[in-house]
Specification:
By secondary structure, the chain is an alpha+beta fold. It has helices spanning 5-11, 58-74, 88-91; strands at residues 18-21, 25-29, 37-43, 81-84, 100-104. The protein binds guanosine-5'-monophosphate and zinc ion.
């Protein structure tokens, strides 16, 4: 997608602090962190949101969660962390390229706002 911020980050057209990359996914630091640790895990394929998860990409979603867990371990989030996916307008999604937030090193509240 030509005007997608995250596709531009994948291509290197927008700078970011990339902390992980493989053939299917990347992870990078959130530009506006909401916790001492806050990074995003995204597929290289442009999938708009969780609404578009189907048979063709469900394994990729598992891969993204695997990366989230692996990086959380590497970042020492031993006391726990939160994985967030915002979907659509009601979910508070602002970038229309599916992403998992990983937030840690502070106590999270529940319910979320
Ligand atoms: P959403 O609100 O869609 O769940 O999350 C989008 C996230 O992307 C936000 O936490 C926001 O700070 C982050 N973000 C938006 N633009 C950029 C950018 O250009 N670079 C980085 N690293 N993060 C971004
Ligand atoms: Zn995209």
């Amino acid at each position: 997608m030509d005007n997608c911020i995250f596709c531009k980050i994948i291509k290197g057209d927008i700078p970011s602090t990339i902390i992980y990359e493989d053939e299917k996914a990347i992870a990078f630091e959130d530009i506006n962190p909401q916790a001492p640790v806050h990074f995003l895990v995204i597929p290289k394929e442009h999938i708009i949101s969780a609404k578009y998860i189907d048979e063709s990409n469900k394994d990729l979603m598992g891969h993204l969660l695997f990366i989230a867990s692996k990086l959380a371990k590497e970042k020492g989030l031993d006391e726990g962390y939160r994985i967030v996916n915002n979907c659509g307008i009601d979910g508070g999604q602002t970038v229309e390229h599916i992403h998992f937030h990983v937030l840690g090193k502070r106590k999270m509240l529940w319910p979320p706002g």
